[in-house]
Amino acid sequence: MAVVRSVAQAGWADQGELHRFRGEVYDCFTARADALFDLVDGLCTPVTVGGVAYLSLAPGARRGHGAAYAAVAAGRIDTDMLRDLLAAARPDHWQADFAVDTTVWMRSDAECSPQRGFSYHPSRHSAGQPIVAGWCYSWLVALSAGADSWTAPLDTRRVLVGENANVVAAQQIQQVLPRLGRLSAPALFAFDGGYDPVQLTVELTGAGAQIVVRVRDDRVFFARPPTRPPGGRSGAPRRHGAKFSCTDPSTWPVPDVALDITDDVYGQVSVAAWHQLHPKQRTYREPGGALRIIEGTLIRLHVSRLPGRRDREPKTVWLWWHSDDPASLDLNRVWRAYLRRFDIEHTFRFAKQSLGWTTPKLRSPEQADRWTWLSSPRSPSYAWPARWSAITGCPGSHRNQHTPSPQAASGRVSAIYYHRSAPRPATRNPPGPAPDARKAPDPRPPNATPPSRKTRSRPRASETHVKREA
Q1: pLDDT band of 319, cuts 50, 70, 90
Q2: pLDDT by residue (tens digit) across 323-336?
Q3: Residue 201: left (phi > 0), alpha (psi -120 to 50), or beta?
């Protein structure tokens, strides 16, 4: 309550943008809308989210924990409409830079929860391997243009067991591109080293988007083969040209494009790019059966220092870049967008630690999907409409003109709700159960049986006495 008490009620500016956004979020709920919106409001208050029931203790909560569980179990959300809303809420002055990555909702002990799979986890291990059982989610977020940790989540999707994360990411990109509208520059999507650059290139060819993917520093690529002179040797033409080894500088030709600048954070930045390189792959073939040659641009990035880690020697980063128009390469934009890709890690931490995204012990994956969508608009994208108000309307904002962090903006949004300056949309149903309200379905899967009572192994003493007398 320290944040709430420190804010004066008369110091807030116009919250019309926030009111409109809340009304549009409410329209995305097609069943149990009021209870679902109460959960969103509960997430916007300074309450420790130890589970779904904890949100019924939030200031201003109008329903009990039973309605909260029923909303997660039987509520309905128009996800396509919500995706359109989140894409429209992306700030216009941001560049068209995006990041895609996966994170896991750990459910290692939930043996009755279906559709769990094994996913990579950096700190948890199972049987000596860095994997955990749970539900894997693929997030697509828009990156901020400034030096802050703000992102705008645009889409989230659960990766089913047996699905390919590269294909899921490509589908998310193809679905979000029409929602972005007219862009001043092609959209750029940054990926970390866990993705396959060749598969992403094939899946997104012709989509009108740029991709930048980190590759290992021991990869080997090949240039185009030289043209066979007339009257030369007979036989099949060469498919691979000169070898390019990332670990052997003697195999590097003169870069096609180079950039050397001085940055305030990273010091001396050197970026070099080589066009028309391709790796060897055995997945995609031509109609005649020959292996396809998939070309792209290889980028070498090296900085002189790291922010906050001046005693650590920076590593050289190798990136794979591809676009339908190779002439649209902007090295200054590409290397900055890739480094800002790490803001999605802050989004994951903010969603899990501050919003309690993976805290509830939900049984079914459908409930997890519904809870994920409730947390997604509450993520930085939901707090973004209050960002301008938080800067201009909060007392003391003149002392710090820097953009507040998502966590700081969350506290200021909570103060808005606490003082009732952000009214709720018109409710469809009054608080409390309606006379003809349907009972929420049993969230337990069909194969989960309720616990049975222990049967008596022998008759009671009184029964034995009666039988003997008979």
Answers
A1: very high
A2: 999 889 999 999 99
A3: alpha
pLDDT at 300 over 80: yes
| Strand (E) or helix (H) holding 274 | strand 267-277
Give residue for tokens 């967008």.
337
CA–CA distances in Å: residue 414 to residues 3, 117, 143, 395: 8, 36, 24, 15
* Per-residue model confidence (pLDDT) at position 119: 85
Contact between 262 and 302 under an 8 Å Cβ cutoff? The reply is no
Q: How far is CA 17 from CA 13, 385, 387, 388, in A?
A: 11, 6, 10, 10
Tell the burial category of 5 from Cβ atoms under 10 Å away from its Cβ (0-12, 13-18, 19+).
exposed
CA–CA distance, 251 with 220 (Å, rounded to integer): 10
Backbone φ and ψ of 151, nearest 5°:
-135, 165
Per-residue confidence (pLDDT) for residue 258, from 0 to 100:
96
How many distinct helices (H) and strands (E) make up the chain? 14, 14
Chain position carrying tokens 């459908």:
366
Residues 391, 413 contacting (CB under 8 angstroms): no
The pairs formed by 305-309 with CB atoms below 8 angstroms and a separation of 24 or more are 305/266, 305/267, 306/266, 307/265, 307/266
Give Cβ neighbours of residue 309 (< 8 Å, ≥ 6 apart).
Answer: none
CA torsion 363-369-372-377 (nearest 10°) is: -150
Give the whole-angstrom CA distance, residue 384 versus residue 143: 13
Give the C-alpha separation, 397 to 394, whole Å: 6
